[in-house]
UniProtKB/TrEMBL annotation:
Organism: Macleaya cordata (Five-seeded plume-poppy)
InterPro entries: Cyt_P450, Cyt_P450_CS, Cyt_P450_E_grp-I, Cyt_P450_sf
Entry annotated with the keyword Heme: yes
Superkingdom of source: Eukaryota
Cofactor: heme
Protein name as annotated: Cytochrome P450
Length: 443
């Protein structure tokens, strides 16, 4: 009785802060279609921006994917979410994503996610970057030779995806069967098309197709792990780690890198001056190496300008449009009540595309990272704090190795200079970014 009454007093106490302002939109669908349409039309920052100016610049409420959600904005909002895991919030995902991804790393319960996180970090440490760089370089050279060389025109997105998928399959799963890779890649495309769709489970809908593809992928991965188990005599904990790592990597992680590499190609085509600066940097590295010598991790350290180009792509087009948390206690933030149990979302666009943190935010300007270091928690394509992406070094190696090999081999032009970029759920060019290829003439 006492607990009930004290809870009631707290709820009705006129001095307790109000809920954040905002709108839940339509019944059931909430504001899901609004954000989805803005994302697809290439304006993923508009949803947040308009609500920050209409409701509150620090926080607003909405309803997404069938759940009431609070959106934390700005570097202070990011800081709170990234640094209060297990104190105020816990990483979690909307129910609809759990259905698609099952017990994948994305949606796993806290303890399992932490274990998996350790596996990814441990694997990358164990394998050491040195080894990773060389293996990526080998895969990349092979892919360029087989898929790009001798062509006048290619579809950039499908080929970078093939490269990214090959690195994951080849480096981590030890599979270089092109038929298996193609089959799985097709299923992943269908799965990805169904992410962030309303869960309408009816033949023909994107959600329905995605659920079916998720099942096919799961079965293929189970088969793969069985084959690996029968051919490798490792101990049981290694096997669990291996299964987790393979499913996670293949499950998800080729997408973010592919989207970023595709956009690097686009921006370098649109800005020849940036292309030449990247080429200059990469040529200097290539000239310092012997014939047939692969890249190493020291070479990657020298790719500073190239990384600024990537960083600027990740700022304007972050492949992950934020992640979700759940409040695990009642607390107040920015003068508003945050009730226990509520879903919380952060989105990098609240700082990346915000004049207060990045002047002229829509301008593609890699040198902004030379001029000044972004404010803490303002530049967050990989998240931040203890749940920050553990695969960022993997992604860095994958992308820089690709840039090195691509600019050394080719110049290129966009077939459709006005091709639109939409976010669904990753940034993608509407026609797959076809480009004209010209062999590079260099020393
Ligand atoms: C450009 C490429 C990538 C981007 C932009 C990216 C971004 C992110 C973001 C924003 C998060 C969520 C952080 C949070 O909720 O605070 C995340 C989580 C995660 N990423 Fe990445 N990621 C990329 C590639 C990768 C790769 C290649 C791997 C694996 C090798 C990976 C493994 C993970 C894992 C395991 C988590 C979950 C961490 C946890 O829950 O503690 N990521 N990533």
């Amino acid at each position: 009785m006492y607990i009930l009454s004290s809870r009631f007093i707290k709820l009705v106490n006129p001095r307790s802060p109000p809920l954040p302002p905002g709108s839940y939109g339509w019944p059931v669908i909430g504001e899901t279609f609004e954000i989805r349409n803005l994302c697809r039309s290439g304006k993923p920052d508009e949803f947040i921006k308009t609500r920050m100016s209409k409701h509150n610049k620090d926080i607003f409420k909405t309803s997404l994917l069938g759940e009431k959600t609070l959106v934390f904005c700005g570097s202070a909002g990011h800081k709170l979410l990234f640094t209060s895991e297990k104190q105020w919030v816990l990483t979690c995902w909307p129910k609809i994503l759990s259905k698609l991804f099952g017990d994948s790393f994305l949606t796993a319960p806290y303890d399992e996610a932490i274990r998996t996180r350790k596996v990814v970090t441990g694997f990358l440490k164990k394998d050491l970057l040195q080894e990773l760089v060389q293996r990526f370089d080998k895969v990349c050279k092979k892919r360029l030779e087989e898929d790009w060389v001798g062509k006048d025109q290619v579809l950039a997105f499908s080929l970078v995806k093939k490269y990214a998928f090959s690195t994951v399959c080849d480096v981590f799963a030890g599979i270089d069967d092109p038929n298996w890779q193609c089959k799985l890649l097709e299923e992943f495309n269908i799965l990805l098309n169904g992410v962030f769709q309303l869960p309408i489970y009816f033949p023909g809908t994107r959600h329905y197709k995605a659920v079916k593809s998720a099942e096919v992928i799961r079965q293929e991965l189970i088969k793969l792990v069985k084959i690996k188990r029968s051919t490798k005599r490792n101990n049981s904990s290694d096997r669990v780690e291996e299964q987790n790592l393979i499913s996670y990597l293949i499950d998800e992680k080729d997408e973010e890198g592919s989207s970023t590499m595709m956009l690097v190609i686009k921006y370098l085509a649109e800005n020849p001056e940036f292309y030449h600066l990247v080429l200059e940097e990469q040529t200097e590295i290539a000239m310092s190496k012997g014939a047939g010598e692969f890249l190493n991790k020291d070479d990657l350290q020298k790719m500073k300008y190239s990384w600024n180009v990537v960083s600027e792509v990740l700022r304007i087009w972050p492949p992950v449009q934020g992640t979700f948390r759940k409040a695990i206690a009642d607390f107040t933030y920015a003068g508003f009540s945050i009730p226990k149990g509520w879903k919380i979302w952060w989105n990098p666009n609240s700082t990346h595309m915000n004049e207060d943190y990045f002047p002229d935010p829509h301008k593609f300007d890699p040198s902004r990272f030379e001029r000044e270091t972004p404010a803490p928690y303002a530049y967050v394509p990989f998240g931040g704090g203890p749940r920050m992406c553990p695969g960022r070094d993997f992604a860095r190696v994958e992308i820089l190795v690709f840039m090195h090999n691509l600019v050394r081999k080719f110049r290129w032009e966009l077939v459709f200079p006005d091709e639109k970029i939409g976010v669904d759920p990753m940034p993608l060019a509407s026609k797959g970014l076809p480009i004209y290829l010209y062999p590079q003439t260099h020393p």
